[in-house]
Amino acid sequence: MRRQVHKRIDRRLRELGLSDISPYRYYLETGGAWAFSAYHIWMADKEKTYYHKQAKKAFIADRTNFRILERNPCLSNHITKRRLKWLFTHEGRMHRTTRPLFYTIGDEPGVANQVAPFDYCFSPHCKKAFREWLKKRYGTLEALNEQWESDYKKWDDVRGATTDETFARKGGASGAGLRLSCGLSGVGS
After folding, report:
1. What are the boundaries of each domain within the chain?
2. Could you read off the pLDDT of 94-117 as tens digits, one per residue?
3. Closest CA to 121 of 155, 165, 77, 86
4. How many other CB atoms are there within 10 angstroms of residue 175's CB atom?
5. How many CA atoms lie within 13 A of 36 on its CB side?
6. Which of 19, 87, 126, 145 would bridge 121 by S-S if both were Cys, CB 3.0 to 4.6 A apart?
7. Beta carbons of 98 and 151 less than 8 angstroms apart
8. Whose CA is closest to 186, among 137, 114, 126, 127?
9. Angle between helices 124-138 and 173-186 in degrees, nearest 10
């Protein structure tokens, strides 16, 4: 059975013009899981979703405590970015002669645990990056307020909506913008 599967794969690869993949011995899952998949990382003394479940419990108990909504590690934090850049550069250099088939940054990477009610980062780093992104996108606070149907008096008060808040209103701009901003911030945009 296994041999038949390999023959089919080999035949399909040849149809695509690939005659040999032997130089690619493995794929490399880099050490980025600590940053991109932190909500489900293996630990010897706890189940892998322990911290996610603790955050969920805390948020259910108090949905107004935005400290719970700070992602750890924050992808907008310059220290996190510097560490990831070093890690990916180092691993790329270390494995360039053995030519892995592909590199991956982590297992099921995400901003948070998919679409949980506390799935964004409200850290000071992310809020600052989000506001800067909004200023470029909307130009003025008045334009933002009009689009969001909000009444912010100054940029420092602006924050994105949680999933709960986004679903509770008819326009999802503040939640969608925060998700997009968090994702862009994590890749250095």
Report:
1. 23-186
2. 888 877 767 777 666 655 555 565
3. 77
4. 21
5. 21
6. 126
7. no
8. 126
9. 110
Q: How far apart are CA 10 and CA 8, in angstroms?
A: 5
Structure tokens at 131: 């506001």
**Radius of gyration from C-alpha coordinates of the chain:** 21
- Write out the two tokens for 54: 């603790």
Rounded to whole angstroms, how far apart are CA atoms 80 and 82? 5
Length of the chain: 189
- Helix ranges (H only) for the chain are 2-15, 33-36, 50-61, 78-95, 124-138, 141-148, 163-168, 173-186
Is residue 63 within 8 A of residue 164, CB to CB? The reply is yes
What pTM did the predictor assign? Answer: 0.66
Query: Is residue 174 over pLDDT 90?
Result: no
- Give one DSSP letter per residue of 69-117, joined into a string: T--SS-TT-HHHHHHHHHHHHHHHHHHTTT--S-EESSSS--SSSTT-T
Side-chain-side CA neighbours of residue 53 (13 Å): 7
List the structure tokens of 122: 């409200």
